[in-house]
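I would love for you to help me understand the pair of lines that follows before we discuss the fold together.
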Amino acid sequence: MNAYQSWFQWIYGTGRWLTIAVLTFSLTIALNPQVHSQTPEPDSSLIPIAIELDTDDQPGRVPNGLSTSPSPVADGERGVLGSDDRVLMTSAAYPWSAIGRFEQRDPSGDVLSWCTGTLVGRDLVLTNAHCVVDSQTHELTTDRLVFQPNMIRGQSSDTATAIAVTYGTNFEDGAETADDWAIVRLDEPLGDYYGEVGWLSLPLDQSEIRTLLRNKLHLAGYSGDFPNNLPGYQPGETPGIHINCSITDVDSLGRFFHNCDTNGGASGSPLIGRLESGEYVILGLHAGRGDSNGEMINYGMPVDRWQDAIRN
């Protein structure tokens, strides 16, 4: 066998083994779906809203040294459960850093219940009135009110306690209300470290505005049913976020309805939008579930119901 024949035989043999290797790898992927890469992270699907802030709106504030990210999901931390549209919000970057768990605790420090809150000032948190008002006495709860920013897997680097509360209603008449909001003043200026999210007041009763916002809102909250059966996570200890949901209607009380996935524990969650300028703003405040033309749907409080209380 001459050198030419030996060289040809080597190439042929090598090519044959490469072909076998490729076929084996392809078959392995086909038989083992977990080898496939996960669904792409939702960063690029955060669609900006073609609106600009004006003098009546409130821009947010990002502390020096705190990064900003359009993705609420940290690298390699994505969890989708069944048909649920929520994913784990695991990012510590702004604006996700400013969202935290708002708790009622007994004198021994045990958690009695929780909601979701957002830093909207150096020491101010936005949440719901029903998270701070006693349902029996219709007065401010005597329980200790605590805010833990950016809680992930039940851990937060800071804890601040409420020292004053302003709320829109005490539900004394038992009627439904569009004022289920509360502004909580903390004993620590956590906004200096975690940032403050601004807000934008829009006439949500106008169909053109709702169309502009369609599939461009993102609701993040500490729902008590999420995540479920995910190793390393307990329900309610890491926020879930529904990316690209919508405000669908407004009722005669002034409340808006939305189709963002959420559940108990997410009361007080912000509906956040990303503007073309890069600003992140709160466009509404989730409050609970209500009836819209005979259908149960999530509802919330528009910005114009609570923005003056923050400024005052």
The first helix runs from residue 3 to 31. Residues 200 and 283 are 6 Å apart (CA to CA).
